[in-house]
């Protein structure tokens, strides 16, 4: 049983959850445990130029809001950055920030491209890419796992799905890294906005080109699909491309990095996994719970509503902290122990309800491919430098991972 020390955790009343710096500290589990125990639904005070917001930290409360698209909306933003700025320019057009009938129609259309059947050949590509990359790095003395492995798999996969020309991929990756989850300390808000605009412009051009050169990729589906006899608008196409390239890359990339780091930090779990004591499917869920790359999502209340005994007023911002809910001691026994054999393991890493992650199947397949490849071809993993955390109030993980692998 792993216990944590609440006494040394920061007082929830003093924590600034808008500050990316808050999330590079090492006692986040203690911090969230104290929130859950003392202020499970906490009203975060306003910060300069930004309104107050609710912080939901227990599993059951977060689930209840995720499920409830009658009393809560995603159309005024679904992450702190946009919620606090007063809205998202993609509202009503991009899946994640669209509600109601339009959301269902676009989602059903896109789901066809993301079903296990439709993705069969893509999954084969993921396995091949993973195997090639791991094959290359085991031959090296040391390498940066983030740069040489993690950043090529999800990005390569989502680019394959959208048939993005190979020569454009490095630039897209560089823009992705500057958007939601500013990786470096010196990236400014302007850098983020500029990167987002570059991605939108890129897809505007690519969509125009694709209309004249249709294939069986997701972008071709977006430019030709009809809902109630009408094509999607230009903005709907471009914003959904943006969401796929970002959603498809970031969270999967950092979970891949977290997977390797967790094995290094928990050698007994690596031994169990390597010895075949835990199946890949079961292990994948604990890897996802432990990594929880998307720390929060959020909503606006449409009406006065109660959450966890607190009265939320219509118009209030409500943030749901997966990174806390996934370690809620009332749902996960011994939550601070990394236990690859944990079952059941109904984490909220992919959210829940109407906006449940569209790419969950793909995200899982990418991790399963990695786990199988590590088990098969790697004997030892060792840290040879200090990994640095991503500075973000949204994305949890590391931007580099200097390691050395020994071949099996
Ligand atoms: C939605 C997490 C991988 C595309 C979501 C949501 C979460 C999430 C928590 C819910 C957002 C909300 O409720 O507001 C993750 C994690 C991933 C991952 C942790 C990897 C480990 C992917 C991939 C893709 C993707 C690979 C695309 C290929 C999307 C899209 C939505 C979404 C389009 C919006 C769905 C909707 O609003 O109906 N994701 N995601 N995600 N994700 Fe993912």
What this model shows, in words?
The structure is a single chain. This protein is α+β, with helices and mostly antiparallel strands. It has a single domain (6-83, 91-154, 250-407), classed as Orthogonal Bundle (Cytochrome p450). It contains 15 helices and 12 strands. The strands form 4 sheets. A 5-stranded mixed beta sheet has the order 1-2-10-7-3. A 3-stranded antiparallel beta sheet has the order 4-12-11. Strands 5-6 form a two-stranded antiparallel ribbon. Strand 1 (41-44) and strand 2 form a beta hairpin. Helix 5 runs antiparallel to helix 7. The longest helix has 32 residues, at 234-265. Protoporphyrin IX containing FE is lined by residues 74, 78, 95-96, 107, 158, 243-244, 247-248, 251-252, 255, 293-294, 297, 349-351, 355, 357-359, 362-363. Protoporphyrin IX containing FE binds next to helix 11 and helix 15.
Which descriptors apply to this entry?
408 residues, alpha+beta, Cytochrome p450, 5-stranded mixed sheet, 3-stranded antiparallel sheet, 15 helices, 12 strands, 46% helix, globular, binds protoporphyrin IX containing FE, metal-binding, cholest-4-en-3-one 26-monooxygenase activity, iron ion binding
Short recap of the structure:
This protein has helices at about 30-40, 60-65, 80-85, 100-115, 120-140, 145-150, 155-160, 170-180, 190-210, 220-225, 235-265, 265-275, 280-290, 320-325, 360-375, and strands spanning about 40-45, 55, 70-75, 145, 225, 230, 295-300, 305, 310, 315-320, 380-385, 400-405. The protein is an alpha+beta fold.
């Amino acid at each position: 049983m792993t216990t944590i020390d609440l006494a040394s955790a920061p007082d929830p009343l003093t924590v600034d959850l808008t500050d990316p710096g808050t999330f590079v500290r090492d006692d986040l589990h203690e911090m969230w445990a104290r929130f859950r125990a003392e202020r499970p639904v906490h009203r975060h005070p306003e910060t300069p130029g930004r309104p107050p917001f609710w912080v939901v930290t227990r599993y059951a409360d977060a689930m209840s809001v995720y499920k409830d698209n009658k009393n809560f909306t995603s159309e005024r933003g679904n992450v702190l950055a946009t919620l606090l700025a007063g809205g998202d320019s993609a509202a009503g057009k991009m899946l994640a920030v669209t509600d109601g009938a339009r959301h269902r129609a676009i989602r059903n259309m896109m789901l066809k491209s993301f079903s296990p059947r439709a993705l069969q050949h893509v999954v084969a590509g993921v396995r091949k890419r993973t195997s090639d990359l791991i094959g290359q790095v085991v031959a090296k003395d040391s390498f940066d796992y983030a740069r040489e492995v993690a950043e090529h798999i999800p990005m390569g996969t989502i680019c394959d799905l959208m048939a993005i020309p190979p020569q454009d991929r490095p630039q897209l990756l560089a823009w992705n890294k500057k958007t939601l989850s500013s990786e470096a300390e010196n990236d400014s808000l302007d850098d983020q906005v500029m990167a987002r605009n570059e991605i939108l412009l890129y897809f505007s051009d690519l969509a125009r080109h694709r209309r004249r050169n249709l294939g069986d990729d997701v972008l071709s589906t977006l430019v030709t699909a009809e809902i109630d006899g009408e094509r999607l608008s230009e903005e709907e196409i471009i914003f959904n491309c943006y969401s796929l390239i970002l959603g498809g890359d970031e969270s999967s990339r950092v979970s891949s990095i977290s997977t390797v780091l967790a094995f290094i930090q928990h050698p007994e779990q690596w031994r169990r996994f390597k010895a075949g004591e835990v199946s890949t499917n079961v292990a994948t869920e604990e890897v996802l719970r432990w990594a929880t790359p998307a720390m929060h999502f959020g909503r606006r209340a449409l009406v006065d509503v109660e959450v966890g005994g607190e009265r939320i007023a219509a118009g209030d911002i409500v943030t749901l902290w997966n990174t806390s809910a996934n370690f809620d001691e009332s749902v996960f026994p011994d939550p601070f122990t990394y236990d690859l054999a944990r079952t059941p393991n109904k984490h909220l890493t992919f959210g829940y309800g109407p906006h449940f992650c569209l790419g969950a199947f793909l995200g899982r397949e990418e991790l399963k491919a990695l786990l199988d490849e590590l088990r098969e071809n790697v004997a030892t993993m060792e840290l040879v430098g200090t990994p640095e955390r991503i500075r973000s109030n949204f994305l949890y993980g590391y931007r580099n991972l200097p390691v050395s692998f020994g071949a099996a």
